[in-house]
UniProtKB/TrEMBL annotation:
This is O-acetyl-ADP-ribose deacetylase. SMART domains: A1pp. PANTHER family: GANGLIOSIDE INDUCED DIFFERENTIATION ASSOCIATED PROTEIN 2-RELATED, MACRO DOMAIN-CONTAINING PROTEIN. It comes from Gordonia hydrophobica. Keywords: Hydrolase. Coiled coil: none annotated. It comes from the Bacteria.
Length: 312
């Protein structure tokens, strides 16, 4: 799994072993990122494109050329789907990232800089383009150590950072809900925030969680723990926004062999409301135990509250 860094700036000035170009099918240069890379790298990139890709390149595929005058060893060219023209198969967009990383492995490079593919003139909705990029790269099997996702403005950089920070925690919460939907109503969790801003969650069973209201705490019994400082690592696996919710539920149940299967009632309804609110607001819950905290409520990061969970 490569380490992802969000970079605000001009991709033609980013120092990396390989820079990814959002090319078109003809592979003869174009506008946007494609034109900027050809312009900054010089004519040798186009000459290499003509030699290596006489018939162009298919949508979703990738290949490489020299980087010319760019501060990189190679340019990896990939052709994203044109959403505006009706090419809306998300698998093609995901393939751009996977194929680019596969080419990077062939080149034995360790650092790769990507633009946000298809989100410019090709019109792919930015929020989904960000999700496709981060989730696909996070779950890729590759020897690349670091991926830089380059944002062309502050708003896009903020959107990328938000998705990178929240993708795994939100998937874990959805996994807990799936556990309850399967009938394991005794599973409980305690979410909290360290002063340094690290979000943590402890998942256990109701007989191992004390005071399940405003100030819960997990006892010494079996528990599954996650910290946002761990990135995508959860329960010995990699969990991203692309991980099936059912697979996350399986990880949780594998670590909690004492989980009781019984009909869920009010707790599942509360859990649905909580997780829907988290997904809508791109926020995480915090079980508050500060004297100044809201009475009878949990907090949400970024503001807002939700009632404390019911006993059953």
């Amino acid at each position: 799994m490569p380490r992802i860094e969000i970079v605000r700036g001009d991709i033609t000035r980013v120092r990396a072993d390989a820079i990814v170009n959002a090319a078109n099918r003809r592979m003869r240069g174009g506008g946007g990122v494609d034109g900027a890379i050809h312009s900054a790298g010089g004519p040798s990139i186009l000459e290499d494109c003509i030699r290596r890709f006489p018939n162009g390149l298919d949508v979703g595929d990738a290949g490489f050329t020299t980087a010319g005058a760019l501060p990189a060893q190679h340019v990896i060219h990939t052709v994203g789907p044109n959403f505006t023209a009706g090419q809306r198969n998300r698998a093609l967009l995901e393939s751009c990232y996977r194929r680019s990383l596969a080419v990077a492995d062939e080149l034995r490079v360790r650092t790769v800089a990507f633009p946000l593919i298809s989100a410019g003139v090709y019109g792919w909705p930015k929020a989904d383009a960000v999700a496709a990029a981060i989730d696909t790269i996070s779950s890729a099997i590759t020897r690349v150590d670091q991926v830089q996702l380059v944002a062309f403005d502050d708003d896009l950089a903020a959107m990328m950072n938000d998705h990178l920070r929240l993708a795994t925690p939100l998937r874990i919460l959805q996994g807990i809900r799936e556990v309850h939907r399967r009938g394991y109503s005794a599973v409980r969790f305690v979410p909290y925030l360290y002063a340094i801003g690290t979000w943590r969650i402890e998942i256990s069973t109701s007989d191992n969680v004390e005071d399940q209201g405003a100030a819960p705490s997990v006892g010494t019994g079996p528990a599954l723990r996650y910290s946002s400082a761990s990135g995508c690592e959860f329960a010995g696996a990699i969990v991203t926004g692309a991980t099936p919710v059912g697979a996350v539920a399986d990880l949780i149940l594998a670590e909690l062999p004492r989980a009781v299967r019984a009909p869920s009632t009010g707790y599942l309804r509360w859990l649905d409301d909580l997780i829907d609110a988290c997904l809508d607001r791109r926020a995480l819950p915090i079980a508050f135990d500060d004297e100044d905290g809201p009475d009878g409520s949990w907090m949400l990061t970024g503001g807002g509250t939700i009632p404390i969970p019911p006993a059953a």
